[in-house]
Design goal:
By secondary structure, this protein is mainly β. Helix content is 8%, strand content 53%. Strand 12 and strand 13 form a beta hairpin.
Length: 508
């Protein structure tokens, strides 16, 4: 069994299920599992319940990987599926039930197409239809999808980027095929150039759609009619004082009491090295923040509050905002970040004020690939990395924080080398392991030795390594750090077995 898989099996720490009656400032993320992917560059993660089973869909370049998720947050690989023209990446994936049939809708970004898959009883996918871009629609570089259910029909709203920006609506037929209803090209009045986030809300029996315009640096509101057509309501643009919409990215929303809120994040244009990609180059950087808008009785967006990034938060380069839980007077949100490589938990109160709760440095950047999923009383987040060299999907439980004050984390790795491994290979492996201390931040110490036990219970393990981490963040950074992954890849072929345990102890 490969080295990395033993770490997965034996290196995880499990925690009791979350008690949501506790105050939200006690919440923390705890990794439950991680798995390898066949598709490259995870950019979208979604999930779906079917027949009392929980399925996770992870999309990247060339394909979609399907996993089951159990009540402990463990992932089991089920199947993989190619995309049209073997392109991708799979963006804006959304699963839903249309008149009794479960479908997964996928925006094939570089395929300029929308792919519809039927979700089978075991969670795997069967292609149902393929909708290609035309001169009439805006499916070129499609990246965001939103299903909207009206009284008599359901519609798929599609947003794109770059060449043909705009918003399109399609009726979803019972067999999963899409019939074009309306397309609205981007203009100076609306923010639909680079729709990376969308959200819908129903207010007084009227359905509204909210879009973020990445290139437009703003958000827009649209009223949706029963026939799937839509009309612009209002738009809010970025400024340099109290709005943070340069590179508007994730869009979500919640209803608390009688108040409807839309929450918008952004990945500022300053973070993009490809200068030609950004259309409006005269932007001014005035910080990072998550913006909260209140929705009025006409569905229009009204600027309400902001949560500014500072030294105590991880909000730099927001790419995904997921609603973890909603109660009568507050919501817990998770903000995935590409530049801070973290997941920031936040609380939105009934007054529409967003405040930080806690964060976990994941050790990898998140690029739209973050999904909230609930099983019973447990709340999970599933995240994927956009790194081509990582190719992992990770599950976390959001649970009450454990008091780690004045403690450090010991990470013990016991190795048994293959009989055919030479002494030179073993020595090189040891040196590579010890060198991790100089390559990975957060490792405060590495100690190692060769087994000298005479009890006969060593089970063939010969080398022990004890790593000390200062906190949870350091362990996550280590686990997904390139130097650690290189080590696993390099010495894996000469490892016969590995046994890993972690424990917390008082700092010396």
């Amino acid at each position: 069994m490969p080295f990395i898989k033993y770490i997965v099996l034996f290196g995880l720490v499990f925690f009791s299920q979350v008690c949501w009656s506790q105050s939200s400032d006690e919440l923390m993320l705890y990794r439950q599992d991680f798995k390898g992917l066949s598709a490259n560059n995870t950019v979208t993660v979604t999930s779906y319940d079917k027949n009392d089973s929980h399925f996770v869909y992870v999309g990247g370049f060339k394909g979609i990987d399907v996993f089951s998720l159990n009540e402990d947050g463990q992932l089991t690989e089920l199947s993989s599926h190619e995309l049209y023209k073997e392109e991708g990446p799979a963006r804006g994936m959304v699963a839903d039930n249309i008149n009794g049939t479960d479908f997964l809708f996928v925006a094939n970004k570089h395929g300029d197409a929308i792919e519809t898959f039927e979700i089978l009883s075991n969670g795997s996918l069967k292609r149902a239809s393929l909708t290609l871009d035309t001169d009439e629609t805006h499916l070129g570089t499609a990246i965001t999808l939103q299903v909207v259910h009206m009284d008599k029909a359901s519609y798929l709203f599609i947003g794109g980027l770059e060449e043909t920006p705009g918003l399109s609506s399609f009726k979803i037929e019972d067999d999963g095929k899409l019939t074009h209803v309306q397309s609205m090209p981007d203009t100076e009045e609306i923010h639909t150039d680079g729709i990376i986030g969308m959200h819908t809300a129903k207010i007084d029996n009227t359905t509204y759609l909210y879009t973020g315009g990445f290139q437009d640096n703003g958000v827009s509101s649209f009223r949706i009619k029963e026939n799937g057509k839509f009309k612009h309501v209002n738009s809010i643009s970025d400024n340099t004082t109290d709005r943070y919409l340069t590179g508007a990215y994730p869009v979500t929303g919640v209803t608390l009491g009688d108040n409807h809120y839309v929450i918008v994040g952004h990945r500022h244009h300053k973070y993009y090295k490809r200068g030609n990609f950004i259309k409006r180059k005269n932007f001014i950087y005035h910080g990072d923040a998550v913006s909260v808008f209140k929705v009025d009785e006409k569905g229009a967006l009204v600027p309400h509050s902001v949560l500014k990034d500072d030294k105590t938060t991880k909000l730099s380069g927001q790419t995904r905002i997921e609603v973890v839980s909603v109660s009568a007077n507050k919501a817990i949100l998770a903000v995935g970040t590409r530049d801070d490589a973290s997941i920031q938990l936040c609380e939105l109160n009934e007054a529409g004020v967003l405040s930080p709760v806690n964060y976990l440095e994941t050790g990898f950047s998140i690029y739209y690939g973050l999904r909230s999923h609930q099983i019973g009383d447990k709340h999970f987040l599933i995240a994927g990395s956009n790194q081509f060299d990582l190719r992992k999907v990770v599950s976390y439980e959001v649970a009450p924080a454990i008091d780690r004050k004045e403690k450090v984390l010991r990470h013990i790795v016991n190795l048994r080398y293959k009989d055919e491994a030479s002494a030179a290979e073993v020595d090189a492996a040891v040196a590579m392991f010890v060198d991790l201390k100089d390559k990975i931040p957060g490792i405060t110490d590495i100690e190692w030795g060769v087994n000298d036990s005479t009890e006969g219970a060593s089970k063939g393990f010969t080398h022990s390594f004890v790593l000390t981490f200062k906190d949870e963040h350091a362990r996550e950074i280590y686990l997904f750090h390139k130097a650690h992954l290189d080590l696993v890849s390099k010495i894996g072929p000469i490892i016969a077995d590995v046994f890993v345990m972690d424990y917390w102890t008082k700092a010396e």
